[in-house]
Write a structure and sequence with these properties.
The chain is mostly helical and 160 residues long. The protein has one domain. Helix 3 packs parallel to helix 5 and helix 3 packs parallel to helix 6. The two termini are 26 Å apart.
Amino acid sequence: MAFLRDIAETYGRPANVITRKLAQDVREDQLLGYLLIASLVSFVARLPALLQTEIGAVDPSRPALVGAAFVASMLFGPLFFYALAAISHRIALFFGGKGGWQGARLALFWPLMALQPLVVAVLYLNSQIGPSGLQTGLTTALALFFFWTWIKSLIAAERS
C-alpha cells in the first residue's frame, strides 16, 4: 500500500516522495522497473488507437504498426529517458546541483510511472471525444503537470 500512497502523494508533493525514496536508497533495478512499467502501460493505453479500423476494413500493415510501436515503447523509449535523465543531471550540475546520477534517474522515472493512471485516463477521454480543442487541452494539461512534477522531483534530488 505504500507504493500506491507514494503514487497518490506524487500528484501533490513530488519532492517529498523523491526525498523519501532517495533516503531508502533506491536500487538501479527498481529504477529500471519504474521506467519499464511506465513504458508498458503507455503502450497498452495507446493500443486501442493503434488497432482502430473501420468495421469490415482489413489493414495488413496493422501488425507491423503495433510491433513498431512496441519496440519504440519498450526499447527506444527507455534509452531516450536514460539520456534525458543524464542531460537533466548535467544541467542541474551547471546550476549548482549536488545530487547524483541515480537521483536524476529517479526524479524522471518515478513521475513517469506515477502519472500513468492520468495518461490512461487522458488517452481514454481523447479516444471518446475525438479531435477537438478539448483533446488538445487535456493533453497539454497532462504534459504541463508531468513537467511540473519532474522539475519538482529533480530539484529535490539535486539538493540531496
